[in-house]
C-alpha cells in the first residue's frame, strides 16, 4: 500500500504522511528497549510511506534523537522530522523542569540538530508550556530559529486555547500536538475549534491510549521499567483499569464487525476526525507498525462513528491522563 498524505497548517503548511511514528518508546518509558530494533522499525516505516517521525530531546534523555538520527542517515529527504524542547532533563535522567526561556530554546535546538545529524528540523515543538515565561518570548525565540534556517515550522504541545492564540500571533503555528483518542476527547470542548479557526493542524499523540485501545496487553503483568505500571498513569490502576478494559471489550466487538483489530479501529476513528489530523502512534516493533499503517485503509461510516460514540461515551473513561496534571497548560 502507499500511504497518503495530509497537510498540517494553512499559514505555514507542512505536508506529512497520514500516519506518523512516535519514536519515544524505542528509548524509554515502556519497558526494555533495543536500538537495533528501533532503527529497523523506522526503516520499515519509511519503506511503507510513514515519513512523519516524532521524537524529543527528553526521550532517553537525548538517546532517542540519536537513534532517529542514525535511522534516517542517508534518507533525510524522505522524512518530515519533528522534535521537541522544553522538558529539561540532565543526562542521568533527572527532571529539571519546564524551560521556555529564549536562551534555552536556542541552545536546545542546536543540541537537537547535532544529535539528529541534520541541518534543519521540519517541525519544532515546545513540549510543554513554561508558565513562568510569556509564550510570546518563547515563540519569538523559536521564530528566530526559522529565520536562521534551523527550523522550518513551529508547533506547540499540550497548550491551552489562549496560549495557542497568543503564540500564533507571534509566528504561524503549524501544528498542535496533544493527546487525543477515543479515550481522551477534552480538546473537543474548545481547543479543536480554536486551532481550526486559526488554520493549525492537529497531531494526536497516544491515539491508542498508550496501547490500551489495542486490547492486546495483559496490564497486570507489565515488564519492569514500564511506566504504565506506576501511579503516574491512573487509567492503568485498579478499578479504573477494570472499567476502561470493559470499554475496550466493547470497541473489540465493533472492530470484529468491521474485520479489523481494535487498535486499527481506534486509529481509524482518529483519522476520521478530519483531514487536518495526523496521529503519531508509537511503537518499537515492526509488526505493530504494520498493523497501525493498515488502519489507514479502514473506512468508517457515519453509523460506525455513532456506534463508537455510544459504546465509548466521552465521560466513560476512568482516571486522569496523568497522575500529576500540573504541567498541562489549561
What does this structure look like?
Helices cover 36% and strands 15% of the residues. By secondary structure, the chain is α/β, with parallel strands linked by helices. It has a single domain (5-226, 261-300), classed as NADP-dependent oxidoreductase domain (TIM Barrel). Strands 3-4-5-8-9-10-11 form a seven-stranded parallel β-sheet, with helices on one face. It has a two-stranded antiparallel ribbon with strand order 1-2. α3 crosses α4, α5 (161-170) runs parallel beside α6 (191-198) and α7 packs across α8. The model has no long low-confidence stretch (mean pLDDT 95).
CATH homolog superfamily:
NADP-dependent oxidoreductase domain
- Overall, the morphology is globular
End-to-end gap: 40 Å
Cross-sheet strand order for the largest sheet: 3-4-5-8-9-10-11
Percentage of residues in helical conformation:
25-40%
CATH architecture: Alpha-Beta Barrel
Structural class: alpha/beta
How many helices? The count is 10
Q: What's the multimeric state?
A: single chain
Organism: Nocardioides marmorisolisilvae
GO cellular component, one term: cytoplasm
Keywords: Oxidoreductase
GO molecular function: oxidoreductase activity
Amino acid at each position: 500500500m502507499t500511504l497518503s498524505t495530509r497537510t498540517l497548517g494553512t499559514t505555514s503548511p507542512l505536508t506529512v504522511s497520514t500516519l506518523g511514528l512516535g519514536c519515544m518508546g524505542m528509548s524509554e518509558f515502556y519497558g526494555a528497549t533495543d536500538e537495533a530494533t528501533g532503527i529497523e522499525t523506522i526503516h520499515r516505516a519509511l519503506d511503507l510511506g510513514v515519513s512523519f517521525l516524532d521524537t524529543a530531546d527528553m526521550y532517553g534523555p537525548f538517546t532517542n534523537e540519536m537513534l532517529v538520527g542514525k535511522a534516517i542517515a542517508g534518507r533525510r529527504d524522505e522524512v518530515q522530522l519533528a522534535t521537541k524542547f522544553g522538558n529539561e532533563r540532565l543526562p542521568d535522567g533527572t527532571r529539571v523542569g519546564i524551560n521556555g526561556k529564549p536562551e534555552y530554546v536556542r541552545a536546545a535546538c542546536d543540541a537537537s540538530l547535532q544529535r539528529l545529524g541534520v541541518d534543519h528540523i521540519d517541525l519544532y515543538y515546545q513540549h510543554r508550556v513554561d508558565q513562568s515565561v510569556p509564550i510570546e518570548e518563547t515563540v519569538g525565540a523559536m521564530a528566530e530559529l526559522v529565520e536562521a534556517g534551523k527550523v522550518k515550522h513551529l508547533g506547540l504541545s499540550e497548550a491551552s486555547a489562549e496560549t495557542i492564540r497568543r503564540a500564533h500571533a507571534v509566528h504561524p503555528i503549524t501544528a498542535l500536538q496533544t493527546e487525543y483518542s477515543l479515550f481522551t476527547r477534552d480538546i473537543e470542548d474548545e481547543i479543536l475549534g480554536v486551532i481550526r479557526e486559526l488554520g493549525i493542524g492537529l497531531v494526536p499523540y497516544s491515539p491508542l491510549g498508550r496501547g490500551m485501545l489495542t486490547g492486546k496487553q495483559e496490564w497486570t503483568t507489565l515488564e519492569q521499567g514500564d511506566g504504565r505500571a506506576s501511579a503516574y498513569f491512573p487509567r492503568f490502576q485498579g478499578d479504573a483499569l477494570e472499567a476502561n478494559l470493559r470499554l475496550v471489550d466493547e470497541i473489540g466487538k465493533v472492530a470484529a464487525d468491521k474485520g479489523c483489530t481494535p487498535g486499527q479501529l481506534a486509529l481509524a476513528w482518529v483519522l476520521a476526525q478530519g483531514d487536518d489530523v495526523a496521529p503519531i502512534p508509537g511503537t518499537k516493533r515492526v509488526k505493530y507498525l504494520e498493523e497501525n499503517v493498515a488502519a489507514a485503509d479502514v473506512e468508517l461510516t457515519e453509523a460506525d462513528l455513532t456506534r463508537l460514540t455510544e459504546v465509548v461515551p466521552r465521560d466513560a473513561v476512568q482516571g486522569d491522563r496523568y497522575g500529576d496534571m500540573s504541567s498541562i497548560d489549561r
